[in-house]
Amino acid sequence: MSKPAVKTAVFFLSVLACTFLLSYAWEHGWEAKISRLLDLPYDEDFEDAERWRFIITIIAFSALSLVVPTAAMHFLFVRLAVSHTQLLSSRETAVSMAFTDALTGLPNRRSLTGELEAIAEKQPSPEKVHALILIDLDRFKSVNDVFGHGIGDLLLKQVGKRLVSIDVPGIVVCRLGGDEFACTVRDQYLTAVEELGQQIEHIITTPFTIAGREHSVGASIGIACMPSHGHTAEELMRRADIALYQAKKSDGSNVQIFDPEHERIEMQKYQLGEALKHALVADNIIPYFQPIVDLSTGNTVGFEALARWVDGSRVISPSIFIPLAEELALINDLSVAIFEKACHAAATWPSHIGVSVNLSPRLLRKTGLALKIQSILLASGIAPTRLTIEITENMRLEDMPLASETLRVLRQIGVKLALDDFGTGFASIHHLKELRFDSLKLDRSYVAELGCDAENDAIVRSTLSLARAMQMDVVSEGIEDVRQLDWLNLEGGRFGQGYLFSKPMPSSEVHTYLNRVNPKIAV
């Protein structure tokens, strides 16, 4: 190779090397420093891949500038500038969309996280707090369902506008999604934060006029403050969520400030829920059986199966775990497990002794339940006529055609139906007529007052009379003393159960009990 060619090659490579070093230094250090020094805008969010793409582009243009005419290079540089401008514009749009709610134009959940992190970096003034206020609209779903999502969207926009109009220095309003909003405030007295919560509730519960029609929604509001309720964005968000949950459950104020006791209760509930899941898998939820007695003879005619959670040496009350099972959607599995165990236990009893099992409203809405029950009866070997299914009076049968049809099918094969907790819920004569219940179970709250309250006695007499007229039996729950027993015998209450006769017992004790109280007929 000739000396001129070598010199040209060395020059060419030197230019490219210098270009690389300068562009690399610019992208990975100089740009940020010089921009800050000159107070120029600087985007720190470029990824390494984008920076290397820029470096390679600069090197390519440097190489081309050595061999391409000046006019052509000018054209290429103009195109590069346009392309770069478009890239920056696209990035700005993408960033804006990532941090902004598309419907309301408010900052979104991601933006709220950034705001909370910024708040956490600076402590409030003495005796003041930073606060996060979470807002959940009540009855918004009804507006959506009845009037459509278009009206619902307009309502959400109006909610956003009202929240933004609140005159509090430094307030930041965000939409988290759905019907959830949030506000943050800095350096406020706690009393001012509480007043702000009440103000938010008021402006949201004031009716909205949309398309010439008034629409009303409610608001549940949870508040957590920094530093008393947490020092990080995550802690503040979690504890505001707990306060919001309490506001939704509250029968009083819809504005709740975080209480550490609520967090302790929620943690206990979570731990109990996990233990309940394991108990179901381990088969530790079992039926205990309480006798149902013919009050006139004292003979046991059946048993009610009551779910019990046996945890080592202790038995956990159903009043604790049944509501939790419903909340965690475990109630169906639990109900089926108790039903199956109860039927298999009843198969070992005398053939005239029946078994009553309570089925949850949620399970009764499940497709194929009637066939499932028939298969369990067949597998256990007990006659359908020995089975009584109890349903709670609080279940609205008119809202659940599938449940009603399931109960009708079961009745056709001989299964008896009982209406549990009669007198405490929504039962009506229509229910009794349509489903043709075989018995009513008089709630223990009425039995407890027998002979002590004239109005209570009149209600029970009327119930007994109604049942006789409709050819139904009445089983009185919670009989605990002879006074109640004598009153029921005198007024014609035929059946009952309660601690006067026996506490619920495990399956292993049923035969011993029957041998003691029904010695002539027990096996």
Automatic annotation (TrEMBL):
<keyword id="KW-0812">Transmembrane</keyword>
<dbReference type="InterPro" id="IPR001633">
    <property type="entry name" value="EAL_dom"/>
</dbReference>
<dbReference type="GO" id="GO:0071111">
    <property type="term" value="F:cyclic-guanylate-specific phosphodiesterase activity"/>
</dbReference>
<dbReference type="Pfam" id="PF00990">
    <property type="entry name" value="GGDEF"/>
</dbReference>
<dbReference type="InterPro" id="IPR050706">
    <property type="entry name" value="Cyclic-di-GMP_PDE-like"/>
</dbReference>
<keyword id="KW-1133">Transmembrane helix</keyword>
<dbReference type="InterPro" id="IPR043128">
    <property type="entry name" value="Rev_trsase/Diguanyl_cyclase"/>
</dbReference>
<keyword id="KW-0472">Membrane</keyword>
<feature type="domain" description="EAL">
    <location>
        <begin position="269"/>
        <end position="518"/>
    </location>
</feature>
<dbReference type="Pfam" id="PF00563">
    <property type="entry name" value="EAL"/>
</dbReference>
<dbReference type="InterPro" id="IPR000160">
    <property type="entry name" value="GGDEF_dom"/>
</dbReference>
<dbReference type="InterPro" id="IPR029787">
    <property type="entry name" value="Nucleotide_cyclase"/>
</dbReference>
<protein>
    <submittedName>
        <fullName>EAL domain-containing protein</fullName>
    </submittedName>
</protein>
<feature type="transmembrane region" description="Helical">
    <location>
        <begin position="54"/>
        <end position="82"/>
    </location>
</feature>
<dbReference type="InterPro" id="IPR035919">
    <property type="entry name" value="EAL_sf"/>
</dbReference>
<feature type="domain" description="GGDEF">
    <location>
        <begin position="128"/>
        <end position="260"/>
    </location>
</feature>
